[in-house]
Design brief:
The chain is built from 2 helices and no strands. It has 53 residues and is mostly helical.
Length: 53
């Protein structure tokens, strides 16, 4: 029986949970930023320039 890694049991689950929470926080921050009128106008300008309209 391999007893060298007993202290690491459950670490992968904790790491996945932390990454999920961090990703949700980052997504929330992006939503707040993208709701800004200045950012929306900037993105629309970039898209219009890229599409040549």
């Amino acid at each position: 029986m391999d007893t060298d890694n007993r202290g690491d049991e459950g670490m992968a689950t904790v790491e996945y949970a932390l990454v999920t929470v961090a990703a949700a926080g980052f997504a929330g921050l992006l939503v707040v930023i993208l709701k800004s009128d200045e950012v929306r106008g900037l993105l629309l300008g970039i898209l219009r320039g890229a599409l040549g309209t």
